[in-house]
Amino acid sequence: MNRKQYDEPGRLLHLEGVHNLRDLGGYPAQEGRQLCWGKLYRAGDLHGLTQQDQAFLEKRHIKTFVDFRGAKEKKQAPNCGLATLVQTFELPIEAGNILDLCTVETGVSGEALMQELYGRMVETARPQYREFFRILADPGHIPLLFHCSAGKDRTGLAAAFILSALGVDREWIYRDYLLSAAYLKDLIRQWLTANPHLEPVLSVRRAYLEAAFVKIDAAFGGINRYIQEDLAVDVTAFQEQYTEPSPLGPMQKHLD
Question: 38, 87, 153, 228: most buried, per Cβ within 10 A?
């Protein structure tokens, strides 16, 4: 498998004022299909968009923002707009007291706390993710960009749910999730200089997303049931909307 095929071209969008901005297109789905390019984008916060950044996104005709950040985050870093933007949906998922927990000696590792957080989001953020899929079901909202602050945790779960609903193999889902570690590497290094004790929170680890899937399997009967019943996704319609025949034909199921 050619790794570059799914990391580029067009996966990461190199803009000056936003981190971890990427297109979800190209991932192999079921029955010789792939995700459409140019419909769904994921990112960190959009507070720092330059005029050139805005013009770049406007050329992609972004119509909709979905913002998973809490009120305090949005107040500290309000999003910039776009001339093509029609609507912003605010679906706040509060991370709770995870940052506070990581600053004290609890006897629990930071990684364990982050795994707990992911399991908690799977359960408590169902209303937000359900509404997110309702928004995605309306073609009038596309192209759409969804984001949180860094674009790795709340956004990472949202992307994992999208890819799961579209029949993307689990290993590809982990790869997309872990791309945040590469694309945020320099920014994470800066954060850790000032906050070394937050290393588990600021990191991107496969174990975090695995914890979400474990919780889904144990509490909700697996990802397919979770997607269709708890998030109310019409999977057939969703796949028709966001996948297309792959020019490469059927792909191998797992990564080399």
Answer: 153
